[in-house]
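FAQ

Q: What does a record look like?
A: Structure on top, sequence underneath. For example:
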């Protein structure tokens, strides 16, 4: 048997933040961009209306878990939702919930792309003459296909044709125009996702009002998509202005390492008090 003492419980965003904060004390935000999406940030206790600052003597800051994936559940994002977003939402296990997450995260990105492709196929605008049966199946277009397709140099479609072959199509029956259109759809969906994530980060940066911040990021979408980081870097810079400095830092094993660091700090403090 293994004896385990639970001294801290934290989610992946907090772990991500902590795993980078020990390396760089400018780290103020933890962001997950993977199967799902969420963010946490460092807030001044005096600004947290649900707490009494007197209950936390000697403590100036607290990490706030935003659960921002649920943003839009009350219609805040209806003005940019498309019919494809609505289809994905309706077919999900939690219709009407986690709207922001469904427009950004890896769990839904591939299906969003597939929904657009199905409409193009209905009008015979793409993959005419190719075997399209598998692509008509819900969930058949994996999010990793978007990363692979967008990894091809512009004008080349090697990875694109490999992805389509996995979807049951004969690469010789797919034209360069088909591949170009497919890449365009993938780019439209992934760029929108990165821009929406950037808007959320910008809101947190403006809320905290620090002038030099490191944002710790973990998750498969940020880690493996070839352009996600660059688009976020550019968009946040545009939204924040030239006088603001920030860095996007990839977190390595944020959840595990961050949890270990929190536990270590707590035990160190307990040891100090005991002495």
């Amino acid at each position: 048997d293994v004896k385990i003492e639970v001294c801290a419980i934290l989610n992946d965003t907090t772990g991500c933040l902590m795993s980078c904060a020990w390396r760089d004390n400018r780290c103020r935000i933890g962001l997950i961009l993977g199967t799902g999406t969420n963010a946490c940030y460092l807030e001044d206790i005096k600004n947290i209306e649900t707490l009494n600052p007197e209950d936390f003597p000697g403590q100036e800051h607290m990490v706030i878990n935003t659960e921002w994936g649920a943003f839009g559940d009350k219609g805040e994002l209806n003005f940019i939702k498309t019919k494809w977003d609505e289809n994905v939402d309706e077919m999900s296990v939690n219709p009407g919930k986690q709207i922001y997450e469904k427009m950004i995260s890896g769990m839904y990105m591939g299906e969003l792309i597939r929904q657009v492709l199905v409409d193009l196929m209905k009008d015979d605008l793409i993959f005419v003459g190719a075997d399209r049966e598998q692509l008509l199946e819900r969930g058949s277009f994996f999010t990793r296909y978007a990363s692979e397709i967008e990894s091809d140099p512009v004008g080349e479609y090697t990875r694109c044709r490999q992805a389509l072959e996995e979807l049951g199509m004969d690469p010789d029956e797919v034209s360069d125009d088909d591949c170009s259109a497919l890449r365009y759809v993938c780019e439209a969906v992934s760029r929108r996702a990165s821009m929406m994530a950037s808007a959320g980060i910008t809101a947190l940066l403006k809320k905290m009002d620090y002038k030099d911040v490191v944002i710790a990021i973990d998750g498969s979408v940020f880690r493996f998509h070839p352009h996600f980081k660059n688009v976020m870097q550019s968009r946040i810079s545009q939204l924040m202005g030239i006088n603001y400095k920030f860095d996007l830092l990839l977190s390595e094993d944020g959840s595990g390492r961050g949890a270990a660091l929190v536990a270590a700090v707590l035990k160190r403090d307990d040891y100090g008090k005991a002495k």
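Q: Is there anything notable about this one?
A: The mean pLDDT is 94.
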